Amino acid sequence: MLVNLLAGLGPWSWLILGLVLLAAELAAPGNFLIWIGLAALVMGGASLALWDMAFWGWHVQLVLFAVLSIAMTLTGRHFFGGRDITTDEPLLNQRGQSLVGRTATLVEPIREGRGRIRLDDTWWSVSGPDLPAGMRVRVAVWDGNELIVEPVA
User: Fold this and answer.
1) Alpha carbon distances (Å) from 144 to 14, 56, 94, 125
2) Tens of pLDDT, residues 104-141
3) Residue 48: how many CB atoms within 10 A of its CB?
4) Angstrom distance (rounded) from CA 6 to CA 13
5) Is this structure's pTM higher than 0.90?
6) What CATH code would you report for 95-151?
7) pLDDT tens readout for residues 14-25
8) Around Cβ 72, how many Cβ atoms within 10 Å?
9) How far apart are CA 89 and CA 124, in angstroms?
10) Percent helix, strand, coil in the chain (nearest 5)?
11) Quick one: angle between helices 58-80 and 33-50, nearest 10?
12) Under DSSP, is residue 38 helix (H, G, I), strand (E, B) or coil?
């Protein structure tokens, strides 16, 4: 039934599929469906030119579409894929990591390994050796949501 439907639409089925895939890429962008949609559009153009040829059956079209889809996806990823771009702000989205090396004053003493400091406008839970409130500490390590501190000498 599907084969009869595709045969009845002729080369227009590839063009329609290509446009639907390109529209789906616009609706849910991910830089993936665009390459498969372009492969379908190429297949539509090839089908318009080769439709009356004896060898141009649906088997050949599906195999060629699969090869074109893989080739276009790999080529597109190579030329337009994410690249390692060096930046002048390497810790921009890693706030805890950007605090390593900074000093602060303990607002709450570290008792049993836990305390609190205030850096900029944020309260941070800290861990480290037991220290009294008011002591200057340096952030040594960022461990998830907690900063590990050491006393400033």
Assistant:
1) 50, 59, 10, 11
2) 999 999 999 999 999 888 888 999 999 999 999 999 99
3) 13
4) 6
5) no
6) 2.40.50.140
7) 899 999 999 999
8) 18
9) 22
10) 45, 25, 30
11) 140
12) helix
- pLDDT band at 6, cuts 50/70/90? low
In this structure, the strands spanning 122-127 and 114-119 are antiparallel
Longest dimension (CA), the chain: 88
Amino acid symbol at 95: R
124: which residues sit within 8 A by CB, 6+ positions away?
99, 116, 117, 118, 146, 147
Residues 122 and 49: their CA atoms lie apart, in Å, by 66
Q: How far is CA 36 from CA 28, 68, 139, in A?
A: 14, 8, 49
94/104 Cα distance (integer angstroms): 19
Q: Residue type at 31? A: N
Q: Where are the domains of the chain?
A: 2-80, 95-151
